[in-house]
Amino acid sequence: MYQKKIPVSLYCGLHYFKEILNGKWKLMLIHYISEGFLRPSELQRVIPKADRRVMNRQLEELVLHGFITKKIYDGKLSKVEYKLTALGENLLPLIYEIERWGQENQLVIEKAMKNDPKFEHVV
Fold this sequence. Notes:
single chain, 123 residues, mainly alpha, two-stranded antiparallel ribbon, 2 strands, globular
């Protein structure tokens, strides 16, 4: 298992937020699960650029940290579904606000990204 090289220091709520929700797809996963995309294949369809292994690891971390639950249905073909917990539901207004901010500032952000070489291959 991966172990951080630099110890985690938690000085304020932003540190807690960053440490627990740091991940390329975590906020999007919470958002799409809230919209009814409950199965891993559905999530992969709405986030097609997400590597399946990375997405599964982040889903497991969201389960571990209490943002979502995972239900496994037994049967001929096992089926997995994710649902938001109260903690995940509590995070939705913040996610919607971040989404609104991104949309309102889209042109400025796109201009800044064009000037930054690390976004050279972003579509």
